[in-house]
Design a protein that fits this description.
Helices cover 81% and strands 0% of the residues. The protein has one domain. By secondary structure, it is mainly α. About 4% of the residues have low confidence. The termini are far apart.
């Protein structure tokens, strides 16, 4: 595993553990922030290991409020194990911890268990859409998130990246800049 990717994953795991160690009402918003941060990492590094962790963190964000105390503690323990294993470069134990985490997420709630594939698919689509907003092509975003282009296509038109760009830098200014660059008056 690349050292930069390892560093990013350790950061995300550490922040998630910090958030979950002391349950507070602001936890959901902080978990969403960590999930959003990890999508930035995917856009930069385009690494499948980051995708796996990002989908996991987003899934935890979606189900943590419905978890039973025993499952919550087991989740926290598995996160700590994953972090420690990765710090020690024990990738076998790290991967086992990730599998355990996915298992905990799956069994947390019967509704989640029944619809986990939908949750995971929705997480991949949401994060794929975020990659589109960061300038990746549909093919790149879909490939990184384990989706087909067809899965992501309906959401590509719903992104507001271009609309936001227009508000920040209006079309008239962009046109004037292009004319200036190409020497057209």
């Amino acid at each position: 595993m690349d050292t930069e990717i390892k560093k990013e994953i350790l950061y995300d795991l550490h922040k998630t553990i910090e958030i979950l160690q002391v349950p507070e009402t602001k936890d959901l918003e902080e978990l969403k922030t960590i999930s959003d941060h990890s999508i930035e990492d995917i856009a930069v590094h385009k690494d499948l290991e980051l995708v796996s962790v990002t989908v996991l963190l987003y899934s935890i964000y979606k189900i943590v409020s419905t978890m039973q105390p025993d499952d919550y503690q087991e989740l926290l323990s598995a996160l700590q194990s994953a972090e420690k294993s990765l710090q020690q470069n024990n990738l076998g134990r790290y991967n086992s911890s990730l599998k355990r985490l996915y298992s905990i997420v799956r069994r947390t709630d019967t509704a989640v268990q029944e619809h986990l594939q939908d949750v995971m698919q929705a997480a991949r689509i949401k994060k794929g859409t975020a990659l589109l907003q960061r300038g990746l092509s549909i093919g790149q975003a879909a490939g990184l998130m384990g989706l087909s282009n067809w899965d992501l296509q309906p959401y590509a038109g719903r992104t507001t990246a271009l609309e936001q760009h227009d508000e920040i830098y209006p079309a008239q200014k962009r046109m004037a800049q292009a004319r200036h660059v190409f020497g057209v008056r």
